[in-house]
Design a protein that fits this description.
Blueprint: H1 4-10, H2 15-36, E1 40-47, H3 55-71, H4 73-78, E2 82-86, H5 94-106, E3 114-121, H6 123-139, H7 150-155, E4 167-170, E5 189-192, H8 202-214, H9 223-235
The protein binds farnesyl diphosphate.
Length: about 240
């Protein structure tokens, strides 16, 4: 969700105002995703590296997160959304962690869209914690090197239980990954939008989904193989 700072600076506003306007995009994109039947939506709201931003900006983001968790609570529960979080959430201040934990617990049995907030999240950090926990399991004799295939590896990731990643959208014209879902990206489609996140609303999101629908996902196969598989599936 990139471009909040630039959106604000272009208007002579403090960066925090860009994040605030970005929260409205969060609400709109989440509603749209649910309406069109997205199974799982993951929002990169705060990275492991974002802690190093100026203290006032970090504080403003934490305030916004708390506000969001309180103001969206009813809509999330009413719409059967399951709120989930990935990252080193124990690093969050108590005034964010508490409403987060409460909403996670209260929505745990919901079966609609899974809305995951990536908070204090880093892809490398996720891989390192997975390796650490696998090493611990190996030391205890609970995991052998031969058991360590891609499926077992995935079960140690914070995203364990989420469906495979289909599409990653990065806003604001930047074309990089910035430590997001590094393992899960393997076969994801990428969409880079020039729109700044605070302006990224329903129309911009639907444009990305339309682009995604035009892609041919081959997962290492040839185009002919994929077409054959598609036609078999259509006949079944
Ligand atoms: C990156 O843009 C954005 C962030 C670090 C924060 C994203 C947070 C929100 C959209 C609001 C709060 C989130 C929720 C879930 C309510 P940037 O600040 O790096 O933008 P810039 O590149 O233009 O400076």
């Amino acid at each position: 969700m990139d471009g909040n700072g630039r959106w604000a600076e272009m208007r002579g506003l403090p960066r925090e105002e860009g994040h605030r306007e970005g929260s409205t995009s969060v609400r709109e994109v989440t509603r749209c995703a649910r309406r069109v039947g997205v199974q799982a939506l993951t929002l990169y709201a705060f990275s492991s590296q974002n802690w190093a931003r100026p203290a006032e900006e970090v504080a403003a983001l934490m305030d916004l997160l708390r506000e969001y968790l309180e103001s969206e609570r009813a809509e999330i529960l009413e719409n059967g959304i399951r709120l989930n979080a990935i990252g080193e959430v124990e690093k969050l201040p108590r005034f964010v962690k508490e409403p987060l934990d409460r909403l996670r617990a209260d929505s745990a049995n919901n079966t609609g869209m899974v809305l995951t907030l990536a908070l204090s999240y880093g892809g490398r950090e996720e891989l390192a914690q997975a390796a650490r926990r696998m090493a611990e399991a190996a030391c205890k004799g609970e995991l052998t090197p031969a058991q360590l295939d891609t499926q077992t590896f995935e079960s140690y990731l914070w995203t364990n239980g989420l469906p495979p990643l289909d599409l990653v959208v990065r806003t604001s014209g930047e074309q990089r990954i910035s430590n997001f879902l590094l393992w899960q990206l393997a076969y994801a489609e990428l969409c880079f939008s020039d729109v700044l996140w605070p302006d990224f609303r329903t129309e911009a999101f639907l444009r990305c989904l339309a682009q995604y629908q035009q892609r041919e996902r081959r997962f290492g196969l040839t185009s002919a193989q994929v077409k054959r598989e598609d036609s078999h599936r259509a006949k079944a």
